[in-house]
Write a structure and sequence with these properties.
153 residues; mainly alpha; two-stranded antiparallel sheet; 3% strand
Length: 153
């Protein structure tokens, strides 16, 4: 069945698309300004969490739009794995992206000095965790795509 033959399902896809896009625009408009992201009264770590949430929201929204408009197929084990990785990677992506742009909103990974835990005195442990997590998630996707199968397919 092609997208055009879905009938009322296509109407639902369009409705959800509008909801996702408007919600994304509203969240961005409400948070990317001097009341949230660039609010000097907020601790830099609080601003970090606001930006992390925005990037995660953006990634999840893109994933939802992909699910709505991709060509219809049966959901195989391979597809299930890729969907699971995509959802879990959205959080890692949000953390890493908000860390990368910290200089632009003067954020901080640390709110309380006692929790400034570094690996070898160099890399914050949270950054290391999310970098390794995202790397492993990318590895899973590439492995599944390159081999064309999972171990149980």
């Amino acid at each position: 069945m092609s997208l055009g033959e879905k009938g009322w399902e296509t109407e639902h896809c369009w409705l959800l698309t509008v909801i996702v896009i408007v919600t994304l625009a509203f969240a961005g408009g409400a948070d990317i300004n001097y009341t949230h992201v660039w609010n000097r009264q907020w601790h830099p770590h609080a601003r970090f969490h606001a930006v992390w949430q925005l990037f995660s929201h953006f990634a999840i929204s893109l994933f939802v739009l992909f699910l709505l408009w991709r060509l219809p197929t049966g959901l195989t084990e391979r597809s299930s794995l890729l969907l699971a990785v995509a959802v879990s990677a959205s959080d890692s992506f949000g953390f890493l992206a908000s860390t990368a742009v910290m200089p632009y909103y003067e954020g901080s990974l640390v709110a309380v000095p006692e929790y400034d835990i570094n690996v070898f005195g160099l890399v914050p442990v949270a950054l290391l965790f999310y970098a390794v997590s995202f790397g492993l998630q990318v590895y899973i996707v590439l492995n599944v795509i390159c081999t064309g199968r999972t171990k149980r397919d």
